[in-house]
Specification:
Largest sheet of chain B: none
Number of strands of chain A: 3
Strand content of chain B: under 5%
Largest sheet of chain A: 3 strands, antiparallel
Shape of chain B: globular
Distance between the termini of chain B: 58 Å
CATH superfamily of chain B: Cytochrome c oxidase-like, subunit I domain
Radius of gyration of chain B: 28 Å
Radius of gyration of chain A: 25 Å
Number of domains of chain B: 1
Shape of chain A: globular
Structural class of chain B: mainly alpha
Oligomer: heterodimer
Distance between the termini of chain A: 86 Å
Number of domains of chain A: 2
CATH class of the largest domain in chain A: Mainly Alpha
Order of helices and strands of chain B: HHHHHHHHHHHHHHHHHHH
CATH class of chain B: Mainly Alpha
Number of helices of chain B: 19
Helix content of chain B: over 70%
Low-confidence stretches of chain B: 7-23, 132-144, 589-603
Mean pLDDT of chain A: 85
CATH architecture of chain B: Up-down Bundle
Structural class of chain A: mainly alpha
Helix content of chain A: 25-40%
Mean pLDDT of chain B: 86
Number of strands of chain B: 0
Amino acid sequence: MLNFHKDHKNLVLTAGLVFVALSVMVAILPAFQMQETVPLPNEKPLTEAEREGLHIYVKENCMACHTQQVRNIEMDKMWGSRPSIPSDYFYSKKRLDVWRQSPSVLGSERTGPDLTDIGSRQPSEDWHLLHLYNPRAVVSASVMPSYPWLFREVPESMLTKDDREVVAPEAYFNKPGIALVASREALLLVDYLKSLKQTELPTGISKDFIPAKKRKEVSGGTSNSSNARSGPDGANLYKQVCVACHQDNGKGIPGAFPPLDGSKIVNDENHETLIRIIIQGYDANPNFGVMPPFGEQLTDEEIAAIASHERSSWGNNAPPVSEDDVKKIREFINKELNP
Amino acid sequence: MKKTTWYIICLVVGIPQIALSQTEPISTENWVSSPGIIGTFVLIAIVFIIAVIILLAKVNSYIDGMKGKQREKHKMAFDDELIAMEDEDIDYILEKRKAALKYKLKGNELGGKHEAFDEKGIIQRIDNSPSNALFDEKQKTTLSIETPIELKKIVIYYVGAAAFWLVLGTLIGQYLGMKFVWPEMDHQAWLSFGRLRPVHTNMVFWGWSSLAMIGLGYFVIARTSNTTIYNYKWAWYAWRLINATIILGSLSLMLGVNNGGGEYREYIWPIMLLFAIGLILTFWNFYKTVATRKISEIYISNWFILAALIWTIVLTTIGYLPFYQDGLGETVIQGYYMHQGVGMWFMTFTLGLVYYYLPSSLNKPIYSYSLGVLAFWTQMLFYTMIGTHHFVFSPLPWWLQTVAIVFSAGMFIPVIAGTTNFLMTMKGSWNHISKSYVLPFFLVGVIFYFVGSSQGSIQAFRFTNYVWHFTDFNVAHSHMTMYGIIAFMLWACIYAILPKITGKEPPQVLVGAHFWMAFIGLFAYMISLMAGGTYKGLSWIEGEAFIESVILMKPYWVWRAVGGSLMFISHLVFAYNFYYMVKDYQKIKTSTSTKNVEKLTVK
């Protein structure tokens, strides 16, 4: 009946039809099924500016190096508070226009950090703009390309009110009398990046990470010593959270982000201001960019670890901060805000 | 066929238990002893051992060559002795020669106790000046394959365009690799990493591999159907369309017009449509040629080639239709598309080519025809299902990920079937390794077919995916397959067929240079990225700050760039070899063939 060895028509037809059937089963039906997803109740649609920013994200093909998916495994915890779910992509993954399909923002390569929650992790517009102009100005070991074509050079005398000036360190931009101005595209792209925040799940639904196995304690006596140094590692947390602006050497970036090394606030015997700034953010010094608040992102224990690390590193030498200290200040702040 | 069913049942039942117990905690302790990692080590060791064997074979033949030279020296000394002989001696020899001419057999010659010597001058040709001691002269291929000039032209132009895209595409790839080491190499928007990366991947995919495959395919289709190509014009239309796709696509990507960043479908649909039309024309042309074949059986190569074309037409259509691609629908299709692009197009087509070129270059039939048929159907069944293994642990439905992992393990069946078939065909012809570079190219391709595919299956397992996903290991894997398998096999086919249709063989030294530089380059490339990728994954699991994983990759990126440079230089050599083979091919062929005809008719 089906003599594939001699009947070319049947051979091609069978191979073709079976393939189509398998494809429908494994690709088209699941795709239709995934398309029925609805957004979370409190998920915000992209604004016009953010959508335009997404177009620039696609144009520069940021997906080549940045993922936008928090996998349900513990190591991805640093990229979001929960694993990503299909609803998260409801607004961003729509067909771009007649010519271009829905963007592949999930990505397949993490040469750079995951961006699912970059808007919460790094809300500072100053940082994003400087980072786009030259990533190495803020992260010295970065291998990300610079995007100078998203910026304009304007004589200082011709600056208008609408121009968004970017202050770059001298090593990266040093032209007297000329200001570095972010183009519309750069601002739109940053708008999009800042919009990338994980929406909280409605209460009652929980989605957890698959835990990693706890490292086996070496039996007997050593277990005590490992207990002694338990708790978060301040140096590592500093690298994850603070280093982007304040730098590894604690010197910050002149004109953009203040130094912590030798800082009065950091070294102050009374640690209240330091803890407050970490929890609430800071925008009092016009010489530097805005510091975003980290109270939501970090636990008391973590803040204590970071503060202690900052107070004892580089040239600094101030007593450590305990979890209770942070707790007290946080309670105090809460009282202040909701009397 | 019963055996197959049994295998399938075994795999479907057995594999899930190994590959996926979702909720168990994962530990990085003793990561070295995890089955996936050990499997990968073993697989890489196989490649390494094969390389050593090829090298030893070559060294051996070199030593043989040296010995031969020694012998020549002795002979030369003998010649000098002859020149220095006295007249009397020469007269004596002449007398002997005269006597020899009148000589008649006595009947006891074969039984005599005399020492044998070539008194009668029976040996026709003694080559006293072997031009190259490094390599045995390969036997000249017979130029007897009668190929219509139109077909020759098609093969040469397809392969020529492919070689061009290979050189340009890998130049771009090399440039991209260097950007990891020097991120500030340029500040041009159109040369930035994000825009240029898809230019590289698409150019080597659709430009190099696809054009080379189709060109080589034309020869196979006509030859194994024992007829001429149905319509030569269509071949040229398709050639123009595909080349236009790559030119327009690359330009649009550099201008920032990107279909949305889904890998390998970065060209926007109006451009990819040209490619699709090219494929449809090619398919119809091949199909009609097979339909008008002059033998009753359809050779197995044609199964693979026709199926690859029809599958890819379906695949491109599904990949670009918009109706189901909002939200994560796009992600499902992306997994399906990017994997089938590799599996149903490049792998299937290339296997089809190997089923013809490997046995024909060894001048023997394929080891097992039915093993080929088994590989064909399992290729279709298993490969189609595994796309989602690019999205393990992602928000895609878990059942889809499970299917992908299970069928990834099932891929062992077509891979082992294919590998066995090719290796058994080569068995008994290993001496070809030292004689020419066609077999080493095939051997490396086949070994990588086994190693790269198995490694891919292992990589889909839970722990290995956990460590390697998102790291540079993926890049190593894709080069191991697209380069180690596809490119090496295509080169083998090209070096096997082009000399036969143009009548000119490239110097063995240059083919050797191409082989070794490409091979060592690839090895450096993949080992560095595999090692670096593993450390990167482990660093992430440890919860170190992300930038640490960037810093630790730097030396590996340098080695990758070194490997990439070797690969690129080897492509320049290949381009020269191609030029050497096809230069003035029309003159060469026409002159010899007309001579033969004249001789026959005039005398």
